[in-house]
Amino acid sequence: MSERVVVALDVGGTGMKCALVRPDGVAVSTVRHPTDAARGPAAVVDTILDVAEGLADKARADGLTPIAVGIAVPGVVDEARGVAVWSANVGFRDVPLRDLAATRLGLPTALGHDVRAGGLAEARLGAGRGTGHVLFVAIGTGIAAAHVVDGAHVVGAHGAAGEIGHILVRPDGPRCGCGRPGCLEAVASASAIGRRYAELAGATADAPVTAAEVAERAAAGEPLASQVWQEAVEALADGLATGQALFDVATIVLGGGLAQAGDRLLTPLRAALHERMTFHREPRLVAAALGDEAGCLGAALLALDAVSVRNHQEKR
Ligand SMILES: [Zn+2]
After folding, report:
1. How much is the pLDDT for 313?
2. CA 192 to ligand 1 center in whole angstroms
3. Which range among 78-92, 134-148, 220-234, 257-271 shows the weakest confidence by mean pLDDT?
4. How far is the CA of 189 from the centre of ligand 1 (A)?
5. How far does the centroid of ligand 1 lie from the alpha carbon of residue 145, in Å?
């Protein structure tokens, strides 16, 4: 029998990362496509199905056997029913994506949430590998988390577990996109850091400043940037300390754009988190290892789980 692979897609607001992935988690063929979300959700669904089918065809042409499909999407996802319930940036409203793909490709299909899929990949294959209890926290335009226990992600009763970005950290803080003031992501997401810097810089601000630039300017000793960066670090530490009180994980893996600041983020954040630990056991705090491939690899893991072929490959 020829080598087995799964078809994996990670659908984002701007692009799709797609791959054929072996049962050991190695991608043998990767490809990217624009999402072009402005075309509307129906057109995006057509593209997802076309790309998935094209990858399955490519697998067969290369002498491989596609055995399942995994698709990760943003927003609210009902993983049990396989429905993309709601998404702000792609426009999904109750799209039965799992069944649409299963029908089109004739393969078992799993639908997952993008951050939870990324967390699954980091926990099994990446920076959290081998540590049992992992909290993956993605910090980008928003902040979301995935709690992974022994290689399985916890989705919650309503498919909405891990919304760590909406922990209240600053009651008098800026209003969050969810409508409440002072949520973690309103204070410490990459976009919030850029906004805060611009607000304090006022008229002296030349152009919009990204969180990465704030980190750089702070490292270079600019007082305003240092203040903004430290404020964000303190808020993140409050959020992570709450996460640790709830989940008692061995490892917190930081992903998303802000984690690319590396030690400029990790070193002060470890210190701030350490200060907040009383009787709690301090988790290991590390940067994600899989970069922006994590969601796609996680989608592949969901597909593999759907056909339960991972048994012996996962033993280590
Ligand atoms: Zn919120």
Report:
1. 47
2. 12
3. 78-92
4. 11
5. 14
Binned at pLDDT 50, 70 and 90, residue 157 comes out as confident
Count of CB atoms situated within 10 Å of the CB of 106: 12
Q: What is the pLDDT of residues 10-31, one digit of tens each?
A: 999 889 999 999 999 999 999 9
Beta bridge partners of 7: 20, 69
Other CB atoms within 10 Å distance of the CB of residue 307: 15
Q: Ligand 1 centroid vs 18 CA: distance in angstroms? A: 30
Q: Are 260 and 214 in contact (CB under 8 A)?
A: no
pLDDT (0 to 100) of residue 316: 45
Q: How far is the CA of 191 from the centre of ligand 1 (A)?
A: 14
Q: How far is the CA of 174 from the centre of ligand 1 (A)?
A: 10
Alpha carbons within 13 A on the beta-carbon side of 223: 0
How far is the centre of ligand 1, averaged over its atoms, from the C-alpha of 51 (Å)?
34
